From TrEMBL, chain A:
Keyword Protein biosynthesis belongs to the record: yes
InterPro entries: Asp/Glu-ADT_sf_sub_c (IPR036113), GatC (IPR003837)
Purpose of the protein: Allows the formation of correctly charged Asn-tRNA(Asn) or Gln-tRNA(Gln) through the transamidation of misacylated Asp-tRNA(Asn) or Glu-tRNA(Gln) in organisms which lack either or both of asparaginyl-tRNA or glutaminyl-tRNA synthetases. The reaction takes place in the presence of glutamine and ATP through an activated phospho-Asp-tRNA(Asn) or phospho-Glu-tRNA(Gln).
EC number(s) per entry: 6.3.5.-
Pfam families: GatC
Provenance organism: Devosia algicola
Catalytic activity: L-aspartyl-tRNA(Asn) + L-glutamine + ATP + H2O = L-asparaginyl-tRNA(Asn) + L-glutamate + ADP + phosphate + 2 H(+); L-glutamyl-tRNA(Gln) + L-glutamine + ATP + H2O = L-glutaminyl-tRNA(Gln) + L-glutamate + ADP + phosphate + H(+)
Keywords, alphabetical: ATP-binding, Ligase, Nucleotide-binding, Protein biosynthesis
Name of the featured protein: Aspartyl/glutamyl-tRNA(Asn/Gln) amidotransferase subunit C
PANTHER family: GLUTAMYL-TRNA(GLN) AMIDOTRANSFERASE SUBUNIT C, MITOCHONDRIAL (PTHR15004:SF0)
Entries under HAMAP family matching the protein: GatC (MF_00122)
Family indicated by similarity: Belongs to the GatC family.
From TrEMBL, chain B:
Subunit and partners: Heterotrimer of A, B and C subunits.
Protein name: Glutamyl-tRNA(Gln) amidotransferase subunit A
PROSITE patterns: AMIDASES (PS00571)
Organism: Devosia algicola
Catalytic activity: L-glutamyl-tRNA(Gln) + L-glutamine + ATP + H2O = L-glutaminyl-tRNA(Gln) + L-glutamate + ADP + phosphate + H(+)
Stated family: Belongs to the amidase family. GatA subfamily.
Function: Hydrolyzes indole-3-acetamide (IAM) into indole-3-acetic acid (IAA).
Gene from which the chain derives: gatA
Keywords: ATP-binding, Ligase, Nucleotide-binding, Protein biosynthesis
Active site: K79, S159, S183
Record-annotated Amidase domain positions: 25-473
Length: 95, 494
C-alpha cells in the first residue's frame, strides 16, 4: 500500500495539521518509506493469535463512583492562550 | 571543596550524612558546572537555580535534624517530559510554549518526598520522538564525548539526550528519563552512563507527557549501577492515579546490586546478531559473556524468532498511540495558538506551527494506520505480532533463562546532522533495534557501559529481565561494570 498526494492531504486534515502544497511530496516520500518498512509485518502468520491489549496481565482497577477531584477552574484555565471568566475562549463555532 | 559534582550519589549521600559538606555546597557545585557547560552542551532547557538552593536549604535543615530522606540533598535533573509544578514543562516542543503545570508528576513527587532536589529541566527529542536529540525545539544536545583526535560534535542519543549528557558531564548527580523504544538505554550507551527502563507499570506515568501510553515508562540515568538502583527505589511505586501502575512492593534494589550472578542462566539470542553489525559490537558482546561466566553464570543460546518484526510493529503502535495522545494540543487549553479564520483553521495552523517535522510525520503515520479501512491491516496486525514478541520472551524465561544479554545499540554515537539518517527516517529508527523489543513486551532492561570503540567512544551492553525482576538486572549489570573497570568519564572540552 502506498499513499498518493491526495491521501497526504486527507491525513493532514484528519490529523488537523495544515499541509502546504509545497510539503506534500516530501511527506508522501517519507510516509511511503515508513509504510514500506512496516510492510514486512504482513508476512507474519498471526492466525489464532490474540492482539495484545495489556502489557501486564491485570484486571482494570475500579474506584468508587464519586467526585474525587476538581473545584478549581482557575487552575484548569491557567495555561490557556485565551480565557475569560474561567472559560476557554475559541473562535465562534455556531452562527 | 572542589568538584563535589563528580561524586556518585552513594558517595554524595555519605558525605552529606557525615557533614563533610552541605547540600547547599553540593548544589552550588552543580549550578556552577551547569553555568560553565550548558552553553556548549545545551543539556538543560531551564535551570531552576533559586528553587534548587531553596530545596538544598531545606535538606540541610533535615540533615542537621537527623531526619534525612533516602536521597536527601541529592541534586537531580528532570527530563522536560515530567510535569513539575510551576516550572517549564514543554516536552521540548514549540506547541507547549509557556506551559507551567499546576501539578507535579508522581515520579518527581516521589523523588522530592525522599529529599532529592531539582536543578532544572533537561533537553530531549520533541515529545520523546527521536534517537539523537536533534528533534528538540531547543536545538540538539551535544554529547560530552568526542572521537579521539576529532572536534566534531556527536549526538548523545535520544530521546533522553539531555539526561544522558547532563549525567555524563557531571551537570547533575542523576536524571529522570523515559523510554518508549530505547530512549533511556540508547543515550546511556552513547554516553557511558547507566540507564534502566523498568517493567511497564513499575513507575507511575501520571504527570508524564504521554507519547505512546502502552510503551512509555520512566526510569533513571546515572553514573553507576548503584546510583541507578538508589534512584529507582524512590521513583518506583504504586500510584492509584495511573490505571496501569502495578500494586506490588518496591524491592530493595540497592541491596541487589552486589548479589552477583553465580548460578544464573543467561540467554544469548541468536537473532540479535545482525548482518553488518560492527566487529567491535560483536567483540563487546563476547567480552560480556566471558565476564559473566567468570563470575559463575551459565550461558544458553536462545531464539527470539520475532525480533525482526519488533521495530516495524513499533512504528505502527507508537505512532498510532501518539496520534491519539497528541490530539489534545489544539491551541485551546495550553501552549501555542495560531489564529485562523475559523476554529478548524486555528487547529490546523496551530498544529502545523507547533509540532516539528518528526512529530508531524509520526502523527500522520498514526492517523493513517488508524483510519477507516486500514485498522486491521496495520494496527491489529501489529498488536498480534506484539503478542508473538512477548511470547518469545516468555518461552525463553520458562525454559530457565534468568536474564538475556545483548548489545545496547548497533553502533557508537554518530555525528550531529548525520546526512544518511536525515535523509531516511528508517535509518534513524534502526538505532532502537536492540531495545524496542523490550518495550513491546513490557519487560525491564538496563544498559551498562562495557567498552569503547576504536575512537574511544562508549559502547553499552543491555540486560533484559523477567517482569518485575529489575534486581537481577542490577546484579548482573554491576558485574559488567566491575569487570569492565573502565573510566567512562568524558574529557572535558566544553
Amino acid at each position: 500500500m502506498s499513499v498518493d498526494a491526495a491521501t497526504v492531504k486527507r491525513i493532514g486534515s484528519l490529523a488537523r495539521i495544515r499541509i502546504e502544497d509545497s510539503e506534500v511530496s516530501t511527506y508522501q516520500d517519507e510516509l511511503n518509506t515508513i509504510l514500506g518498512f512496516v510492510e514486512q509485518l504482513s508476512e507474519v502468520d498471526v492466525s489464532g493469535v490474540e492482539p495484545m491489549t495489556s502489557v501486564m496481565p491485570m484486571a482494570l482497577r475500579r474506584r468508587d463512583d464519586v467526585v474525587s477531584d476538581g473545584g478549581y477552574p482557575e487552575k484548569i484555565v491557567a495555561n490557556a492562550p485565551l480565557s475569560e471568566d474561567n472559560f476557554f475562549m475559541v473562535p465562534k463555532v455556531v452562527e | 571543596m572542589s568538584e563535589l559534582n563528580k561524586l556518585s550519589i552513594a558517595a554524595a549521600r555519605k558525605g552529606l550524612l557525615d557533614k563533610q559538606f552541605s547540600a547547599t555546597e553540593l548544589t552550588s557545585s552543580y549550578l556552577d558546572a551547569i553555568g560553565a557547560a550548558n552553553p556548549s552542551l545545551n543539556a538543560y532547557v531551564a535551570v531552576t537555580g533559586d528553587q534548587a538552593l531553596e530545596m538544598a536549604k531545606a535538606s540541610d535543615a533535615k540533615l542537621a535534624a537527623g531526619a534525612a530522606g533516602p536521597l536527601e540533598g541529592i541534586p537531580l535533573g528532570v527530563k522536560d517530559l515530567f510535569a513539575t509544578k510551576g516550572v517549564h514543562t514543554q516536552a521540548a516542543s514549540h506547541i507547549l510554549d509557556g506551559f507551567t503545570p499546576e501539578y507535579e508528576s508522581s515520579v518527581t513527587a516521589n523523588l522530592w518526598r525522599d529529599g532529592a532536589l531539582m536543578l532544572g529541566k533537561l533537553n530531549m527529542d520533541e515529545f520523546a520522538m527521536g534517537s539523537s536529540n536533534e528533534t528538540s525545539y531547543y536545538g540538539p544536545v551535544v554529547s560530552p564525548f568526542r572521537a579521539e583526535g576529532s572536534n566534531a560534535n556527536l549526538v548523545p542519543g535520544g530521546s533522553s539526550g539531555g539526561s544522558a549528557a547532563a549525567v555524563s558531564a557531571w551537570l547533575c548527580a542523576g536524571a529522570t528519563a523515559t523510554d518508549t523504544g530505547g530512549s533511556i538505554r540508547q543515550p546511556a550507551a552513547f554516553t557511558g552512563t547507566v540507564g534502566m527502563k523498568p517493567t511497564y507499570g513499575r513507575c507511575s506515568r501520571w504527570g508524564t507527557v504521554a507519547f505512546a501510553s502502552s510503551l512509555d515508562q520512566a526510569g533513571p540515568i546515572a553514573r553507576s549501577v548503584e546510583d541507578a538502583a538508589l534512584m529507582m527505589m524512590s521513583m518506583s511505586g504504586f500510584d492509584p492515579k495511573d490505571s496501569t501502575s502495578v500494586d506490588i512492593a518496591v524491592p530493595d534494589f540497592a541491596a541487589a546490586v552486589e548479589r552477583g550472578v553465580k548460578g544464573l542462566t543467561i540467554g544469548v539470542p541468536r537473532e540479535y546478531r545482525m548482518d553488518g553489525m560492527p566487529d567491535e559490537i560483536e567483540t563487546l558482546w563476547q567480552q560480556g559473556i566471558e565476564w559473566l561466566k567468570a563470575e559463575g553464570a551459565t550461558f544458553k543460546d536462545i531464539s527470539l524468532p520475532h525480533t525482526k518484526y519488533a521495530l516495524p510493529a513499533y512504528y505502527i503502535v507508537a505512532p498510532a498511540e501518539a496520534s491519539s495522545n497528541l490530539a489534545r494540543y489544539d491551541g485551546v487549553k495550553y501552549g501555542l495558538r495560531v489564529s485562523g479564520k475559523d476554529i478548524t483553521d486555528m487547529y490546523e495552523l496551530t498544529r502545523a506551527a507547533g509540532f516539528g517535522r518528526e512529530v508531524k510525520r509520526r502523527i500522520m503515520i498514526g492517523t493513517y494506520v488508524l483510519s477507516a479501512g486500514y485498522y486491521d491491516a496495520y494496527y491489529l496486525q501489529a498488536q498480534k505480532v506484539r503478542t508473538l514478541i512477548k511470547r518469545d520472551f516468555e518461552e525463553a524465561f520458562n525454559a530457565g533463562v534468568d536474564t538475556i544479554l545483548t548489545p545496547a545499540t548497533p553502533s557508537a554515537a554518530f555525528g550531529i546532522g548525520d546526512e544518511a539518517m536525515a535523509a531516511d527516517p528508517v535509518k534513524m529508527y534502526l538505532n532502537d533495534v536492540f531495545t524496542v523489543t523490550v518495550n513491546m513486551a513490557g519487560l525491564p532492561g538496563i544498559a551498562v557501559p562495557a567498552g569503547k570503540d576504536g575512537k574511544g567512544l562508549p559502547l553499552g551492553l543491555q540486560l533484559i529481565g523477567k517482569p518485575f525482576d529489575e534486581e537481577t538486572l542490577f546484579a548482573a549489570g554491576r558485574v559488567i561494570e566491575r569487570s569492565a573497570a573502565m573510566d567512562f568519564s568524558p574529557k572535558a572540552w566544553w
